[in-house]
Design a protein that fits this description.
By secondary structure, the chain is α+β, with helices and mostly antiparallel strands. It has 5 helices and 13 strands. A 13-stranded antiparallel beta sheet has the order 6-5-4-3-2-1-13-12-11-10-9-8-7.
């Protein structure tokens, strides 16, 4: 039944695209249709809502070097990552209110207000079913090719910060690119991520290949995912002695 629902929604999307091609009209699907198709392609609202914590482990390739990465997440938007490379270990955390990072030299940095607002949205485990509460306006602004695949482009305006762009595969309905700008210590910086190799874990599809194109490009390949495991809240708090 789930596959049938996805097929109907995808046919609606493709039908609109076909009509546009035949008539010359720039008709596009609504934002609601794109997001509904996305949620169903992931596995559905109920399956997403059942995940309240997650641990992911994998490898990272950056500037010709390889390392390991572990990400811990807990609802609503608590997050901590450990990246181990030949240059050292980088740690980042967000307890839902404050964010921090520790570089390989042991130097700690507290996140800016813009970085905190961004993480509250993007690190939210239930973001994909809570778009309307996280953004004040969502609109389809066009269709572009991403890595050779046609994608619908959504512009999402958050309550705080600049508008983001998300690109959803017109064939699968899945998110394949995310662009945004965030103000950090060096000022405003553009970020761009690509998502690929979706696999189902506990009824929910996740991208097992995540490529950051800018800044400082790298590729993360996920090897292991554990959902709904016990994670102590202290793990996300800013360390007193890094």
């Amino acid at each position: 039944m789930k596959r049938v629902c996805i097929t109907i929604l995808l046919c609606s999307l493709l039908g609109i695209a076909s009509c546009s091609k035949n008539s010359g009209s720039p008709s596009l699907p609504t934002a609601d249709l794109v997001l509904d198709t996305y949620v169903k392609a992931l596995g559905g609202q109920d399956a997403i809502a059942r995940v309240n914590s997650r641990l992911t482990k994998g490898s990272i390739e950056m500037r010709g070097a390889t390392g390991k990465v572990e990400n811990y997440a807990k609802t609503p938007s608590k997050y901590m990552s450990v990246t181990m490379t030949p240059e050292g270990t980088l740690r980042e955390g967000f307890d839902g209110a404050a964010g921090w990072g520790i570089d390989p030299t042991g130097r700690m940095r507290d996140w800016t207000a813009d970085e905190i607002a961004l993480s509250a949205r993007t690190r939210n485990l239930h973001r994909d079913i809570e778009f309307k509460s996280l953004y004040t306006n969502i609109a389809v602004v066009g269709q572009e090719n991403v890595e050779g695949r046609p994608a619908y482009v959504l512009e999402l305006t958050p309550k705080a910060g600049k508008a983001e762009k998300m690109f959803f595969d017109a064939q699968t309905g899945l998110l394949i690119e995310h662009e945004y700008e965030v103000v950090g210590p060096q000022g405003a910086r553009p970020f761009m991520y690509l998502y690929d190799n979706y696999k189902e874990v506990d009824g929910v599809k996740l991208p097992f290949t995540i490529k950051r194109v800018k800044p400082s490009g790298y590729t993360v390949k996920i090897d292991e995912v554990q959902n709904n495991i016990a994670i102590n809240d202290d793990q996300f708090k800013r360390p007193l002695n890094p």
